[in-house]
From TrEMBL:
<keyword id="KW-0408">Iron</keyword>
<dbReference type="InterPro" id="IPR038062">
    <property type="entry name" value="ScdA-like_N_sf"/>
</dbReference>
<dbReference type="InterPro" id="IPR012312">
    <property type="entry name" value="Hemerythrin-like"/>
</dbReference>
<dbReference type="Pfam" id="PF01814">
    <property type="entry name" value="Hemerythrin"/>
</dbReference>
<keyword id="KW-0479">Metal-binding</keyword>
<dbReference type="InterPro" id="IPR019903">
    <property type="entry name" value="RIC_family"/>
</dbReference>
<dbReference type="Pfam" id="PF04405">
    <property type="entry name" value="ScdA_N"/>
</dbReference>
<feature type="domain" description="Hemerythrin-like">
    <location>
        <begin position="83"/>
        <end position="232"/>
    </location>
</feature>
<protein>
    <submittedName>
        <fullName>Iron-sulfur cluster repair di-iron protein</fullName>
    </submittedName>
</protein>
<keyword id="KW-0963">Cytoplasm</keyword>
Length: 243
């Protein structure tokens, strides 16, 4: 991919996920706001376009931390990967993080009242992501797989109850924006996941787990917003709807 000022952040990360580290370094949202161009984010962050492009090219040419070529995968394969990798991660890690936050609020909440807000925010994230993932696993992802099978067999595709895959995708992307905003608040409340100097091990582990969760969620959202959803929409366009 040749980079220009009009290339979008989402396209760049979709082409090579190693570039995600560059955007994270410059505090550029590549998942929920991946539709923005290099020109737009550079103006927003007061960054020289040439400098950002240089960092991106350096990351793309690096042999370290090679990731899967998700862009080459089929839509149903990506949906299956997201379910088995990122959905399972949320299900397994969230209760553990909440347990740590509960302990912190009980022991340190009086001195660090921000812990209560962090707990409240993450509790909402867990509940909302659980419902969000169920909608994907029970409705959206099965339809994507159904489209893939019909396409490979040259079959017609009946119009789904939601009329077009773009309708639930719009709602899912709105959910992603909400989660992005929540974690920006958590980042601020935790001073970028930096525990107090005199903090106990529980404090340190809780913040490390929150930071890891944040990173995984960014990749999770990126895979959906910038790769899976566009593939699903394009796949749907190959069918002539029948009633």
């Amino acid at each position: 991919m040749k980079l220009t000022s009009k290339t979008t952040i989402g396209e760049i990360v979709a082409d090579d996920f190693k570039t995600a580290a560059v955007f994270t370094k410059f505090h550029i949202d590549f998942c929920c706001k991946g539709h923005r161009t290099i020109e737009e984010v550079c103006k927003k962050r007061d960054i020289e376009e040439s400098a950002l492009i240089e960092h991106i090219e350096k990351a793309r040419n690096s042999s370290a931390n090679q990731s899967f070529d998700y862009k080459s995968w089929s839509a149903d394969m990506i949906a299956d990967y997201i379910t088995k990798t990122h959905h399972r991660y949320v299900e397994e890690k969230s209760p553990v993080i909440l347990e740590y936050l509960n302990k912190l609020c009980g022991v340190h909440g009086a001195i660090h009242p921000e812990l209560h807000e962090i707990h409240t925010i993450f509790s909402k994230t867990y509940l909302d992501l659980t419902a969000h993932m169920k909608r994907e696993e029970l409705v959206v992802f099965p339809f994507i797989k159904k489209m893939k099978i019909a396409h490979s067999k040259g079959q017609e595709l009946e119009t789904p109850p939601f009329l077009s895959i773009e309708n639930p995708i719009t709602t899912l992307k709105e959910d992603h924006i909400t989660e992005g905003q929540r974690f920006k608040r958590i980042v601020a409340l935790t001073n970028n996941y930096t525990p107090p100097l005199d903090s106990c091990n529980t404090y340190k582990v809780a913040f490390l787990m929150l930071e890891e969760f944040d990173k995984d969620l960014k990749k999770h959202i990126h895979l959906e917003n910038n790769i899976l959803f566009p593939k699903a929409i394009e796949l749907e366009k190959t069918f002539e709807k029948v009633s």
